[in-house]
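User: Teach me something about this protein's shape.
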Amino acid sequence: MASGGGDLLELAGLFLKLGTTAFGGPAAHIAMMEEEVVRLRGWLTHAEFLDLLGAANLIPGPNSTELAIHIGHRRAGWRGLLVAGTAFIVPAMLIVTVLAWAYVRYGSLPEARGLMYGIKPVVIAVVVQALWMLSRTAVRSWRLGIVAVAAAIASAMGAPELEVLLFAGAVLAFVQLLARRSRDELGPAGGLLPLVGSTAAGAGVAAIPFGLWPLFLVFLKVGAVLFGSGYVLLAFLRTDLVERLHWLTEAQLLEAVAVGQVTPGPVFTTATFIGYILGGTPAALTATAGIFLPAFVYVAASGPLLPHLRRSPAAGAALDGVIVASLGLMATVTWQLGQSALVDPLTTCLAALSAFLLLRYKPNSAWLVGVGALIGLMAASWTTISK
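Assistant: First, the predicted structure itself:
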């Protein structure tokens, strides 16, 4: 492991570049990191890179950000961990903050409403595509399929997201233990779920007026327990910020996700946008710190634990359960948010066409969001002219 100042500067330069230019979501981020650190720089072998990617997939939080943190730690130790993660997050955070300022300053203009009118249906299509692709990988058996459907139904009926995830993981771990007829594997699995539960319990907040501390706790909880795609973020934020605390409307939540989608870097910078529109720059920094802090802690702490989790069938089954349940939550919230985004034949057609293009041809979603924004502007102009 290297640890010199030159290595820290190299890490900072690389991840500042990626944080500024890495469009396209986690899959694109991971591909760009592989090209930079394996093929171009030779910092890792392909096998080592895949090991770090697997480690990132085994812990909650934003996978591509955690992979950046892992690479920094492997390259330059603790200082590298902090430098790589921060450098990857900060450019996206700054870009989103500027867009949030523009949204707050000009969001009431007809042109801004037109932009969001066209963008939101495309965002729904992007989430549908992510859900489909993730489901093909994650739902590998009929048991996992049943858990995913049950999680979606439970969420639609109002069950809290965290309890759904924990229950799904516990059930599949128990099924795995029964199948093996042995309790030898209970330790790693049993240790994992209470850890997640206690973290979330400490981060929970009551329905209270907006403030920086409760905002921090909301996003800390999300960063601490969210498995799967960054789009699962929708389910948690809708429950906490829209339904329970009433700090956001569903339209504002979709607009925040849209901004996270069209900007480079982590999708979790949606938190930055939400924080800014709720309380300006201090709230933007608070929300960003809350949602990303667990990623640094998990990467730093997971090294000794991950080999045991890999060898434990029960722990693996628990993680599988959490992941497919998160997809069920994602499906439910996509349906619910779709009702506020698909408001007429034009938005419905735009969402359907976007979904078809994404699933069939897999274009960069940022381009589709741009086209949706243009269509929204044209529709707003036509409405104004008609009036």
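Now, about its shape. The chain has two domains: 5-87, 130-340. The radius of gyration is 21 Å. If you'd like, I can walk through any region in more detail.
User: That's plenty for now, thanks!
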